[in-house]
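Q: Joint fold for the lines below.
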Amino acid sequence: MKKLLIALFVLCATSAQAQDKSLLDRARTEGKASFYANITAIEPIMKAFTADTGVKGEYTRISTSKFVATAITEFEAGKLLADVVQAPLPVLDLLKDKGVLAAYRSPAAAGYPEWTRKDDRIQLFGIEYVALIYNKERVKKEDVPKRYEDLTLPKWKNQIVMANPANHATTISWLIGLKENVFKSEAEWMKFLNGLAANKPMFVASFGPTPAPVESGEKLIAISMPKYIVTKAPAPLAWAQVSQPMLGTPRAIAVTSKAPHPAAARAFVDYWLSKKSMEMLAKEVGEYVLAPGIYPPIEGISKAKVIAIRELSDDEIQKWGAEFKKIFDVK
Amino acid sequence: MTNARSRLTYLLIAIVGALTVCPVLMLVLGSFSEGLTAFGVFTTDKYVEAYTDPEFFKVMINTTIFVLGSSMLSTVLAIFLAYLNTRTDIPFKFLFGIISIIPMMIPHLLFSVSWALLLNPSNGLLNLALMETFGLDNAPFNIYTIWGMILVEGLLDLPIAYLIIAPAMASFDVALEESSRVFGAGSWRTLVRVTLPVLRPAILAAFILGVVRSLASFAVPSVIGMPGRVQVLATHLYEMIATGFATDYGKAAAVGMSVLAASVTLIVIYRTLTAESEKYVTISSRGFRPTVVELGKARMPLFGVVGVLSFVLIVLPVAVLLYTSFVPYSMVPSARAFSMMSLKHWTDVLNDPISLLSLKNSLFLAVVGATLGVILSVFVAYVIVKVKTRASGVLESLSYLSFSFPGIVIGVGFMWFFVQTPLYATIWALLLGYIATYLPYGIRPMSSAFIQIHSHLEESSLVCGASPMTTMRRIIVPLLIPGIVSGWILMASMFVRELTLSVVLSRPGTEVLAVQILRFAEDGLWGRLSALGMIMILISTALVVVATLVGGRFKTA
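A: Joint structure:
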């Protein structure tokens, strides 16, 4: 029986290998894989993909606000250039509804947690995690927030920078995530929001401009992404290791239904989800990935509890954006 | 002759119309369509939603103050600098000429960030220096206000105004001023009663372009307005498209239509105010000679004023940029910061293959695009100024169509259009999109120059047997050289830093500088961003110098 099982395993492994080889051969014949993504700083992975597989990886960065418009316009005109798309989960859900995505279960995601397999089309691979990032040269250890509520203390008045809560989707989702995952009651959450608003945070368009004012000392703390501690080294940035969980929106990837290079698309997704790529994403870009046991090189992150925020509909985001506009007095 | 002019007018309407109407038409379709693309079931819901938003009225008040304030600032500064640089014996003219157009070469995002580093109320460098010098407890200035926005936008639009007004000043017939003086008027009275009224078309053109540009501007409202919680049209539109994932550009286009309407109204007003173009002719066949006004005792004090203005308003922000490109992260200048300086960001940028490809593509688009754009602009400006028919009015309005739309939206209009053509995702789509959108940058300086050239010159050439083309080549174009140089510089430096179309149309292989800069900005990599920004300034400066030298050679020949 044991011998039979081993034989079966070897047969399956050989068959999978043969399948991989055949996929890669076809991908090489197709020549390239075009990747539309909103994630940044992934050039090293594109370069490694090209070097390791012999298939050229082409990366087009498309911001979240233009993602759906671009993909659907191209798709409806029969000119979608993307073989693979990566964006926040709600974006890929919208594309799935329009028939833009193809079914593909990558064998490379076999070791990922079950909840990351959203359906037969979408695979989650990371969380756009949000934390309190402070200037470690200007904030004393004892002053570093220990809970999110500490941000409402008067000492942070005019010292906070954050993305505009009236329109930045990830920040809106984060604030809702706090309500649903961190605060015990809506009243507590509302008290936190009002206290934060009273501290007059400076608003910027997105997470990108949040670390610069903290580095330069213009502000002391940001609601931002810990990945900047990696990408902006040696800037004096650190994250406040609060006792509550960290939250973030899931990052997703999928193959397109009319991919100009279908085999290359699948080979790319396999490569993207592989341990090697995920390690690069974590170590070089500072991303929080969902491949088990891989963490960005940031002190304390491997022990942190990171929760994926539930998917918010556009209507919810707009409703809460309008609500936060009032609370934070965004003119 | 009349037939030839009519044919030319209709041919140009066809060319300019094809370039500018298509993307706007797609946006009109999108604004009346259900769903997220240009082709859906007819609906007026997007207009109803956009214009019944209670925020809209408040936003429009802020927008009006911002737009009029910045346009007035840029026009007044441009008149002052252009007069001193072109008409007087102020020292270091060439240098001041270049300094006046430097903001044109800097990506607006970077220029705005530099001003935030100088004048933010927490640790702005100028604020810190003033607090230390005068022993103040609080920062005297706060850039994050509507006045800060007006200052920075005004400076960014200064080159446009300068490059329109300076050629007109340079071609000014001094006989008009001399006549004024003969009749007893002093220098100030002559300036106010003769010089400025004669230059009305150029001044109005500069002001109108400033209004249209600041309406479409996003960098200043985003970098300075958003932290100061001052919302204007551009940030209102941004909020409309950024909140949520299923971005409805049709609704944003519906709001954009009011900007388009405002721009077309301004053009009509401009045409009415400059209808009697004969009044503004300063180059006739009777001995045109621009001369230099001697400043006398005022020479050195005025030199000092221009020097300080140039230093504080333009040199300092560029110096901040240069400094940022050498330090490892955003730091206030200190002994430690200087000890940590290195060329790392520069080597990172120069070793990055995408940055190098972007440089190559942007240079190609700047040189080829500006040259084609200027050739088209010469003909369009000729028809607008010299063929005063209803059709020429239509041509002028058409030339403003894409330009008038807020940048955030027009790029999507071009995408909706180009995706229906084989040009999609090629460098030619970028080239055509650039020319279509920034045609007024070529047309305006040329129109101001055409207005000043008397039709007697053209008529004499035709009477002597020269063809219209020969007349254009031998008589008109040589007199237009200052306008052509201005138009080329405006277009080329705009194309080097163009972002709004590029961010939507650029694909692998067609990356351009501004898109690469945006990538660095989104990653918060200000050092690399500044290094690439400085490279961009150097390229634009080289283009300006070459254009000025070539222009000077043609003029002499």
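Q: Anything notable?
A: The mean pLDDT of chain B is 84. Residues 2-285+293-556 of chain B form a domain with the MetI-like fold fold (CATH 1.10.3720.10).
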